[in-house]
Amino acid sequence: xxxxxxxxxxxxxxxxxxxxRANAKQEWKLxxxxxxxxxxVLEFRFVLAPADWSTERDWHSPVATSTTTTRIVGEKRPAxxxxxxxxxxxxxxxxxxxxxxxxxxxxxxxDVDFRKVRAVNLGGWLVVEGWIKPSLFDGIPNGDxxxxxxxxxxxxxxxxxxxxxxxxxxxxxSNVTVNQDVASTWETFKVTNNSQLTSNHPSQxxxxxxxxxxxxxxxxxxxxxxxxxxxxxxxEQAKAVLTEHRKSFVTGSNFAFLSxxxxxxxxxxxxxxxxYDPDPPYPFIGGSxxxxxxxxxxxxxxGLKCIIDLHAAPGSQNGMEHSASxxxxxxxxxxxxIEKTLNVINFLAQRYADNPTLLGIELxxxxxxxxxxxxxxxxxxxxxxKIIRSYSDTAYVIFCQRIGDADPMELYKAYLGPTNxxxxxxxxxxxxxxxxxxxxxxxxxxxxxxxxxQVQTLNRANGPLVFIGRSADFF
Length: 475
Fold this sequence. Notes:
Blueprint: H1 15-34, E1 45-48, E2 68-70, E3 94-98, E4 119-121, E5 154-159, E6 165-168, E7 176-180, E8 189-190, E9 214-220, H2 226-233, H3 235-248, H4 252-260, E10 265-271, H5 288-301, E11 305-312, H6 335-352, E12 358-362, H7 374-389, E13 396-400, E14 421-428, H8 440-459, E15 465-472
Parallel strand pairs: 4-10, 10-11, 11-12, 12-13, 13-14, 14-15
Antiparallel strand pairs: 1-3, 2-9, 3-15, 5-8, 5-9, 6-7
Helix pairs in contact: 2-3, 6-7
InterPro entries: DUF7910, Fascin, GH, Glyco_hydro_5, Glyco_hydro_5_CS
Keywords: Glycosidase, Hydrolase
Family: Belongs to the glycosyl hydrolase 5 (cellulase A) family.
């Protein structure tokens, strides 16, 4: 079969291309039939991350734990090893474990034909996560990773003269006064960048000695995603930065390396704006669709499969940077945003369903248990399943668990679809102080003694397959 790149939608292809697609689909169905049972084998694959990321360990938390007081923006942190391509072998310590586990939830173990799915996440490539590559923000005025003033940064202002904090009366902002001795919720404000102006006064002496009117305390500065990058740079500069990043951060040589080292799939996080390429809504930058097409092309050349993961949904499903949240708010669970998200799923399914490289589509990454009601999520998942099935009978439909205080079994109790369904579980030992007391061997043993029995229990639930889409540990 001819190796080619799938770009336009199916209806845009000529007759010869349509025949090639039909042949590819038939070949894919035969391959799936031959490997219809998946192994009950737990395998972990580690991605290397920067050793100095400890200053940003709170990237996954809604509020930063450290407080920095400053009158001016501090110096930018030097480039670190995190500025190297994600799959570079010379990164720092083994920190983030990305594991993919698929196995058959039916039948006895002896009857299972083994076919392992070993994969890595291509995180930080098509959806920006500042902790993975901090240097992406180096060119933004006041964009420093530690004390910068990007969208969503939470600050408190204290009058130098009065020694009191600025406060929003009654928490609503109808009246702002300087009258509080102690800063709390009403004294904490979120930054929104509407415009920027850099002013220098070299001809005016004395500015360096001018007294500050307010002291600004940066309470939380943990949002360094696509929204902050694009709005911070502005359209033209952001396009230049992201174009270079998408071209160089992950390359064909990375796919070759994976293929040569027993990896047979990649999970590619994408943002909702990919469906609007090449001109997505402001402030997002086009170009990620072409990069995803290229990923499928590389995967086909090197014999890998692709999982498309909707990492960032309209309005943000968890308020974090990797969902492209504007300011930490979670606005996804609205009728309009859910409808828009289903349109994105339709776009992705229509575009890639017949591509033999597609393994599955994940409908949503890490919805927040605190902000996304279970019934809303289940309804969305069922609708997304129907959309994918309208284009493909074989693509796996992946449902991510809610993060936070949620029952690991809740998605197993909901009948999400009859065929090729997968529940994605994420384990973050990294953010639990208990695991800081354990050494590397003890952390690994915990996985075998505690995590594996839990996964085996889910496997025996006679429902969807099990998928460990992400796991993080700290050694």
